[in-house]
């Protein structure tokens, strides 16, 4: 498989017990560990969506089965879970490569999905990447705004010089800057532009 980008997510925290239709939610803490507490689709951190992610069935047809498989479960924001819902491409769509990208089996961000540095909208380089972005509504206004804010905040953090004057408020200032850095790190991470050809 050389030449194919490696998956963004490696599942290493899978539960040691079987998952059933009535108990698949017990996989939630394992999913949070494997996906770094981020939505599998939008990359939003759990802290940015009210402290709770939902569990999406990547292939929604599998949800009907009595036995559930960890590899088909993905943490998702309510927005992404609602946008994807029970959508699954038809056989004819899959033949045309209209499908969702599986970040546990293939490269997605920084490989076939990039952030336009000017607009902060996501751009897909392949048919499947464009389908994935459109169906999951990854260019929804609130996601674009978070990517814009993150870019602006990172720029401010890297260009702002903090004066080192020994005052009583210096410790408080450092606390504010430290808190601001933590906030920025919990935002959607930068998605690199495609390499120049």
Walkthrough of the structure:
- It is built from 6 helices and 6 strands.
- Strand 5 and strand 6 (122-124) form a beta hairpin.
- It is globular.
- The two termini are 23 Å apart.
- Helix content is 32%, strand content 9%.
- The chain has helices at residues 28-34, 78-84, 91-95, 127-135, 141-159, 170-185, and strands at residues 19-20, 54-57, 67-68, 73-76, 113-115, 122-124.
Q: Quick recap of the structure?
A:
The protein has 197 residues and is of the alpha+beta class. It has helices spanning 28-34, 78-84, 91-95, 127-135, 141-159, 170-185, and strands spanning 19-20, 54-57, 67-68, 73-76, 113-115, 122-124. The chain is 32% helix and 9% strand.
Low-confidence stretches: none
What is the rounded Rg?
19 Å
Give the count of helical stretches.
6
Helix content: 25-40%
Record the strand order, biggest sheet.
1-3
Quaternary organisation of the protein chains: single chain
- Class from helix and strand fractions: alpha+beta
Instruction: Report the end-to-end length measured between terminal Cα atoms.
Output: 23 Å
